[in-house]
Design brief:
heterodimer; A: mainly alpha; MetI-like fold; about 0% strand; B: about 270 residues; Rossmann fold; 6-stranded mixed β-sheet; 9 helices; globular
């Protein structure tokens, strides 16, 4: 119990004192996971909508891959991104390994299938008559895509929330491609993991409370938008 | 000769090996109000979807305003010369005003014009007071009026109606049929109206097409076609009834006989 009390108190102290390192870690967490979620949404929402709408050869296989990707372990994503970004890898010339950019790429790989999959399911539940009606009124493919995404906005928002929740909570990929470098690539999850391994449970609890608070604020805002819809 | 708004040539739609629609020639001229009737599975809605360029027939040509769809005119442009009202209204999760405006917005019509045209059309259908209501919070009759307004606001060259009254109760249906008939006459819009209810035809059509098994089996003026069909049906009925009477030896039904005179008496009515 003392440990928990120490952690909670520590979290408040960190908030109040505005520890520059903790603030930097929290902001980097938001920046990396936020950007990965945005990129995942920009690609995943239209892609998921297209997958649920158009029938073409190989559609089932792609949908199956997306569904498999929804359970992609972060370490697997981290490993593959590392292979590509290592100095000797196909994209090694970019020299972005152990940078926040590499972390964004890895987290996007994790968020993308989740956002795509949930969007695909959400749009797929819309009445097919809506699509027929909009086409009959003269909708272009892009207009149709926009209208259907707007119709399925509750599911789409849920997919974005799920994607963000997953990437903000992952450790493996960030650790592998970011390296947990102080002041450069350390995020809340990797810092928490490191503090636990050092035996600083109080500080780890404080970091975890900050992580949960950030996740709560963002998801609560998205839920508010969702409920208003 | 006037240019047909829509023209179908040698249309054959196959599902597997089976031909589900076989229309060698079908035209709709400007100002015509055509009713397409037939039993379930006759191919009425399929015909309408091919006219609306929502379904690729595979074989044959679809011409809109004399231009071949997919060759001289692209599919979206062809669709934008028409508007379609389906059995269910399929209103979007937005206000009535925005629902009615959606087709105009797709066409990039300026904002001021959108507002004026939507308000005018809402008034035409007597639903101006619903403008700010939510599309999903309306009754069946109100929703179908909004759906009709959404199509009519586009001032289409051809209005396609796919059993738009089928989900409504009888009083609402009769009221809306009368009103729609008045609006069609007032605006002079060309229409193709699919129904399986013969009683709806006189409200909205002056030409009737009867479909059976994916083929057009009769096409002409409403009275002419319906009269011919009614006579055929009655003759069939008379034949069946007389066969039944013969099978029974006619003992219990001595005072009942159905013959061609029955048909003639019906004709005189």
């Amino acid at each position: 119990m003392d440990l928990i009390a120490e952690g909670v108190t520590g979290a408040f102290q960190l908030f109040i004192s505005r520890d520059p390192e903790v603030l930097r870690i929290a902001l980097l967490t938001l920046r990396v996971s936020g950007l990965a979620t945005i990129i995942g949404a920009v690609i995943g929402v239209p892609f998921g909508t297209a997958l649920s709408l158009w029938s073409y050869r190989g559609r089932r296989r792609i949908a199956g891959l997306v569904n498999t990707g929804m359970g992609l372990p972060p370490v697997v994503a981290g490993l593959w991104v590392s292979i590509f970004l290592w100095r000797t890898g196909p994209l090694g010339f970019l020299r972005i390994m152990y940078t926040p950019t590499a972390m964004v790429i890895a987290q996007t790989a994790i968020a993308l299938p989740i956002i795509t999959g949930f969007t695909m399911a959400g749009v797929g539940q819309l009445d097919p008559g809506i699509r027929l009606q909009m086409l009959s009124l003269g909708a272009s493919p892009w207009q149709l895509l926009y209208i259907l995404i707007r119709e399925a906005r509750l599911s789409v928002l849920a997919s974005i929330m799920a994607g963000f929740g997953r990437v903000v909570a992952e450790v493996g990929a960030s650790m592998m491609v970011g390296g947990n470098l102080l002041g450069q690539t350390r995020v809340l999850t990797t810092a928490t993991s490191m503090e636990v391994s050092k035996g600083n449970f109080g500080f780890a609890i404080a970091l975890s409370i900050i992580l949960v608070a950030i996740t709560y604020v963002i998801n609560a805002s998205l839920t508010r938008i969702q409920q208003r819809s | 000769m006037r240019q047909a708004i829509i023209e179908l040539e040698d249309i054959k739609l196959k599902r597997g090996q089976r031909i589900t629609l076989d229309v060698p020639d079908f035209k709709v001229l400007p100002g015509e109000n055509v009713a397409v009737i037939g039993a379930n599975g006759a191919g009425k809605s399929t015909l309408l979807q091919i006219i609306a360029c929502l379904l690729n027939p595979g074989e044959g040509k679809v011409c809109v305003g004399g231009r071949i769809v997919g060759k001289d005119i692209n599919v979206i442009e062809a669709r934008r010369r028409m508007a379609m009202v389906l059995q269910r209204p399929y209103l979007l999760d937005i206000t009535v005003f925005e629902n009615v405006a959606i087709g105009l917005r797709m066409r990039g019509v300026p904002k001021n014009e959108v507002e004026a045209r939507v308000n005018e059309t809402l008034d035409l259908f007597g639903i101006g007071d619903l403008a700010k209501r939510h599309g999903r919070a309306l009754s069946g009759g109100e929703s179908q009026r909004v759906s009709l307004a959404r199509a009519m606001v586009l001032k289409p060259e051809l209005l396609l109606l796919d059993e738009p009254m089928s989900s409504l109760d009888v009083p609402t249906r009769m009221a809306l049929l009368t009103e729609l008939g008045r609006i069609i006459k007032k605006t002079g819009v060309t229409t193709v109206f699919v129904t399986h209810d013969v009683t709806e035809i006189p409200f909205l059509a002056d030409r009737t097409v009867i479909m059976e098994g994916g083929k057009i089996i009769a096409d002409g003026h409403v009275r002419q076609v319906l009269y011919k069909e009614m006579r055929g049906a009655l003759s069939q009925l008379a034949g069946s009834a007389n066969w039944l009477l013969r099978e029974d030896g006619g003992k219990q039904y001595d005072n009942v006989s159905v013959s061609d005179s029955t048909c003639r008496s019906v004709e005189s009515v």
